[in-house]
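[agent] plan:
  1. take the single chain provided in the ticket
  2. run structure prediction with default settings
  3. attach structure tokens to the ticket
  4. add a short note for the reviewer (M.T.)
[agent] executing step 1
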Amino acid sequence: MPSSRRLFFHLISPVGVLLLLILNVSMAIGQADAAAQSSAGDATLDEAFSMKLTAKSTRDLDKVVDLCEQAIEEGLDEEGDEQAKQLAGAALYEHAEQLSRPILVPSGRDRRWKFYRKQALSRLKKATEYQPKMASAWLLITKLHGLPGGDLQEAAVAVEKAIELAGDDRRQLSAALFLRARLAGGTGDEDTLLADLDQAIKIDPDNFDAYRVRGEYYLKKRDPKKALEDLNRWLDFSRSTIGSILVVDRLIAMDDKFDSEMQQAALEILSKAIENDPKSPDPYHARARVHAIQEDIDAALNDIEDALKLAPGNERLVQFQARLLIGAERWEEAHDTIDAFLEKNPDDSVMSELRLALLIDQSRYADAIDQLRKLIRQSPDSLGYRRQLAALYNADDRPSQAIRVYSRLLNDVSPERLEAAIEQQRLALLSTRSSLLQGRGNARLSTGEHKEAIEDYDEALDLCYQFRDLLDELEIDLELVNENSTLVGVLNNFAWVLATSPDDDLRDGERAIELAQEAAELTEFKEAYILSTLASGYAESGDFDKALEWIDKAITANSAKAKQLEEDGDQEAATRLNEAQTESLQKEKASYVDKKPWREKQNVEAEKKGTAKDGAKDESDGQDEDESSDENDKPSTESPEDASNSNESDKTPEPDQDTPDSDTDPAENDTDSDQLGSETDGDESDSEAAPDADSGSDDPESDGPEKI
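[agent] step 2 finished; step 3 output follows
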């Protein structure tokens, strides 16, 4: 054998060309005489071996292949021909492997990856023609075809070849079984997926990718205990910060399965991540979320403070810190945190919305209106902000202002526009217009405009029914769009005004009973304010026995709800129900005992200013200056708001918290489980689940008078 060939086989790296070592068998010293016999292509083959030893680029590798093919064409003996094919196959595989590196990286894949894949597969096809038993080449073919847009049939053929050729190489066999499991998972063949993963781990207990994918499988099957056994093995090996965070995200997403045991496991995972990567703020942030779910706000805040030391001024961390403080009702600290951030970033809409939420939670409605005006100036086309502005006017006892905003919005979502819309667009417009009409109707109740309120409720109710019919046509589950709240609010308030208005021409006891009965059925007869409305309908119809029956049920339901709130730790709401609402219900009952129907007409502006004349007048024309671009508002396409509107005059409603133009909490970052842990560790995680502490900024809309 020429010296260059012997030197090549002595120095050749096992990476990419491992199978070339088999040539040592056919190159024993005893065969030196036969190898010395010169063939026409020997010199060219020697040149190929020499170039392979010094190859520094993929161009050099291609040149090696060209020389091997030239040597074969020129003529070689049997041994030389086999050497040339093996060398060509090795060079082709090595080139394909280099092309595959920017393709098979866990993240940040090169934008030209599809071109690289095509080139790599072309060389691998040729490599397997020269060396049909190169298992590593078949494995690489499987990986490349397993990527999006690959030929899954080719991948399936390749992986079977790899399994067949793995022989006694347990690590290679385990890798091939793992790839076949991934292919089976992509086609929904869960039996093969699990069987191959089990076998891959049994053959090679160090196949940590197999642990990861099997753990993901158990997560999908909502078996967190088994999932954690595998995922913890993988995390102990990978020490991946972002992988740890993604695992915890998936556990949190299990909701009911994320119990105290799983929460503790999540904390342990994140604590290890902090030990492994103490300079990253992300695991501190993730651990704070788990502490918040446990309602351990102090621990959550401590973690966020540690994260902020590593990433001072980080917007997402400060946002979460503010949410925690709001949820804990630590108002002063929340104000300081938000104001300090806004001082440096005055146009940050997310923190401005958090400030708005904070003001609303404190019932500082006038200040909240001022804050909302700033947001409207930043986003003049926001329908969500303007709807919220109207709700805040109602909460601040300025229903005339609310009516004006609602009316402008309704002009844009006109009946003509509804008529011209089709399917999904019509669905969104129906939801938006019915909700706006409901809000304006509630505001009109607060100004004593019963006739106009009835007109709004009547149209809103018709649109709610149209919405339901269209949902049926499109085969969409009503619960998915949460539209029941709008319908219930309209039914209840419509029934209330029909039963209790002092205007004889407007009352209709029979229809009030019909509407209230439907609202009661939709709420499973559990809401005291709706049962009270039903009682008022019977009283208006002269059936005082029925009125007393339902008002007693309302009182019982109110007590049950107060008890539940007390058990849940909401003492303030429980006290309000026990005192104010119970007193109101008892007054209604006393009226029915005396065989008197209930009558109610409120004018909150008159009460606020002292005279009906002053109450009917807007406070200031100048207050509308920031609403001048209402005509540019577009109808909402967001999910219907969670409304909770009813009919009690002595309950100040809380305003709408819906601001659909801002995505302040992407909890949902439901990363595909096959990508779990495949991202490279970064400075920030993109996943955030809303902790329970956030509930302080998530109150339901209450556009008008509310009875609880």
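[agent] step 4 note for reviewer: Residues 9-37, 611-675, 677-708 have pLDDT under 50 and may be disordered.
[agent] ticket updated
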